[in-house]
Amino acid sequence: MSKMPSIKASDLPILAAGLVIFLGVACWFHLRNEDSRRLVVTRITLATLQSALRQYERIADHAPRTIAGHTGIYGFLVAYQRQFARRDTAGHWKISHDNLIYLRRSVVQRGWISMPGGGRYYAVVAVKDGFGRPVHYLSDVRQNWRAPCFSSRLPAMAGKTQWIYSNH
Predict the structure, then answer these.
(1) Which of 60, 74, 86, 134 has minimal Cβ neighbours within 10 Å of its Cβ?
(2) Model confidence pLDDT, tens digit, residues 1-43
């Protein structure tokens, strides 16, 4: 049998420093992986919303306008869902051809919207990015030259605020 290695008291500070460095590197890799995942969710969310916008524009021949007193994305979401809503035989509102169903549940917020001709529909009223920040709808080229599009503010890196847009 071989002898078990023994640890001297003088080796403890070196082992502790090595353990701290190892845990720091492991945490850093975990956080980088989590940020990458959140960025992918953000890009997928923006691309899905842009696809819904293009679908709306093909049918309505214009981009939805914002609704006074609400965030820009609320106006888009209401206009989009009203565009594709139909009443079934029981009088309930149903939406067909809805690209918003492809959004992750973790990024949508639901609420009641009024429908034309009366009634309410439990629909998507807000969308967040992968980092939990609100997604913005830019409907006017005075807001951004890429408009109409969607944008999200990414976490500040090195003190700089960075935006990501749906129609890159």
Answers:
(1) 86
(2) 567 777 777 777 887 888 888 888 877 777 777 888 888 899 9
